[in-house]
Amino acid sequence: METDLNTIHVFKTNIATVDPNCQLRKTLDDHQDIKQWSIDHEDVDCVLRVVSDVLQPETIIGMINDFGHECQELN
Amino acid sequence: MRVRDADKEKLVIEMAIDQIVRDGFQGFSMNKLAKACSISVGTLYIYYKDKDDLIQKIGAVTALQFFTSTVKNFSPKMSFEEGLWKQWENRAAFTMKYPKEVAFFEIIKHSPHSEIILDSIKEFADFRMIMKEFIDNGLRNKELVPMTFEAFWSVAYGPLYTLLNLHTEGKSMGGKPFKLTKEIMKEAFSRTIKALKP
What we know:
The structure holds 2 protein chains of 2 kinds.
Chain A: E1 8-13, H1 23-30, E2 36-40, E3 47-51, H2 57-66, E4 71-73
Chain B: H1 6-23, H2 30-36, H3 41-47, H4 51-70, H5 80-97, H6 99-109, H7 113-120, H8 122-140, H9 149-169, H10 182-196
């Protein structure tokens, strides 16, 4: 089944790298409301893409900010 | 509320192929593509996770288009000569109609993306089965000399692709203008089939 486009959230960040064991990765991996996430490290905007039926963009921004990273929704 | 826009998706695929054929994978970026399509980079990321995901998804669409058109009106039960000629016609028609897609496919073929793409298309297995059945029938009916697969492929399709490359470039040796006609194709085919028959 195709992903509902309204459940995909896209953000510009300054997350240059995500170590395999870092807390940010663990939090996103283990989050029960996040179906899928990825960061395009090749892109200048280090675009974060999150698939979630429940989470609002503001919540995701808050989570990323808590890890000390900038995060801004891309429309 | 976001809804799928088929026209926009088509434009993205077309522009991505354009840019990759022109600049290669290295020179291609999500930002440049978004700009060329007059859409926000955010929209592009809604559809594709990253550059590799985009290349693989568009590669799969193109590959499927190619396989589907290659077996159009073709049956593995055809005599070897009739079937191979159908293959030549179908492959030539596709190359002439979609030269950019073919160039894109060539770039992909020599990249690490190709295996991922072929594995992602379930129809590819069917395509391989059809071609295998066709060759097996040819061998069983003694219409085809047993050969190493690569040797077979190079003789069966090499002449066609050489002619198609000249056609796409629009010129032959020494810069002489060239356009592939059915007659020239038949001429090459008649010699090819002679080489493959026992």
